Amino acid sequence: MSSSAMPDIPVPLTNLKFQYTKIFINNEWHNSVSGKKFPVFNPATEEKLCEVEEGDKEDVDKAVKAARQAFQIGSPWRTMDASERGQLINKLADLIERDRLLLATMESMNGGKLFSNAYLMDLGGCIRTLRYCAGWADKIHGRTIPMDGNFFTYTRSEPIGVCGQIIPWNFPLVMLIWKIGPALSCGNTVVVKPAEQTPLTALHVASLIKEVGKMIKEAAGKSNLKRVTLELGGKSPCIVFADADLDAAVEFAHHGLFYHQGQCCIAASRLFVEESIYNEFVRKSVERAKKYVLGNPLTPGVNQGPQIDKEQYEKILDLIESGKKEGAKLECGGGPWGNKGYFIQPTVFSNVTDEMRIAKEEIFGPVQQIMKFKSLDDVIKRANNTLYGLSAGIFTKDIDKAITVSSALQSGTVWVNCYGVLSAHCPFGGFKMSGNGRELGEYGLHEYTEIKTVTIKISQKNS
Known about the structure:
By secondary structure, the chain is an alpha/beta fold. The chain has helices spanning about 55-70, 75-80, 80-100, 100-110, 115-135, 170-185, 200-210, 245-260, 280-290, 310-325, 355-360, 375-385, 400-410, 440-445; strands at about 25, 30, 35-40, 50-55, 145, 150-160, 160-165, 190-195, 230, 235-240, 270-275, 330, 335, 345, 345-350, 365-375, 390-395, 415, 435, 450-455. It has 2 domains: about 10-230 and about 440-450, Aldehyde Dehydrogenase, Chain A, domain 1 (3-Layer(aba) Sandwich), CATH 3.40.605.10; about 235-425, Aldehyde Dehydrogenase, Chain A, domain 2 (3-Layer(aba) Sandwich). The strands form 7 sheets. It has a 7-stranded mixed beta sheet with strand order 12-15-16-11-10-17-18, sandwiched between helices. A 3-stranded antiparallel beta sheet has the order 5-6-20, with no helix packed on it. The N and C termini lie far apart (about 55 Å). The relative contact order is 0.14.
């Protein structure tokens, strides 16, 4: 998108009050049964924002009981027309759009996310995803099947029931919507556990669900699930061939790693560059990383915020030290930044080899590692030599090479001459240890429905 086409970004709200800090069950706010609370912090300043009620087993039981009750045959939720269900989900999208500035400010304060990214990318994505799911609500249907014999056979797509949904801290609002949008569209009820580091936007959305005013259930809690879809971690390969548009590859690979301080499951964290362009690619990547301005993510002009918390911050610094000790060349960064908040300098390593910790472990931080390859077969083998398989990138002007490599890579998503492009229309999920099942798109709806086959004996079929 060109700068001239960028929408205006408002100024973040100041003196934000966090009024929703309780557990939301059966359209009502509750204190925890135990009386326990936990603090929620701003990772840029380390200040406490508020305290949130801490859900425990008894709270979970209450939430699941309420969600089961709402799913009973004959309940208002089960007897509601599918088109009305879609209208309610669209209404929730309207309310999120209304509160977009508030939610973006909250997401930035609680999660360390750049305000501009929260406002444009995260909130924009949430609204589009909900509207996409709303459109599916009255289009989830079965088929008639020409079974042998005098039978009439059809299938029904039925909701599976109560869905337990656990939200990660790196994209708390986006992941909440990815979970509840398709689940509710299919007619399920949900029990949601936001991440303890970033619960505030989920709790605000609960208040909007109450405002919508229908039988949609949410709560902070855990559930034992009989059926599981998991979108887990990754150590995603990004392969740059010598015939690629070098500047475009540098920029996409850079954003593929450094977006949201590297705290993305799809981060392009194993960067393979063909030998003949390796040195130039490293040079341009280092120049790009050095342009960052670090600081409070609510401040205009800042383009890198803090890591989520102290634990993650220390883990990343430890992995950076391992890279230095194991012989990778530190090109820039390599340490903490500032005297307050969990900031880490944008870091680039070259001369990285496959056996180093930084090449094998998911860092989840602003640490780019650039490796060299010589041949097509070699890089495919190395790219697939991992327990993960969430995503991958390929940069080449050769369409035959792009198709060959994308077919060979063991990844749920492969981007060619781009990286990190996601849409509500397209399925997302991983191979191997990066999870099972899919989210988004029509495939994502399948995770929230059961197929029932109904066969009726008839006197004579007329086929």
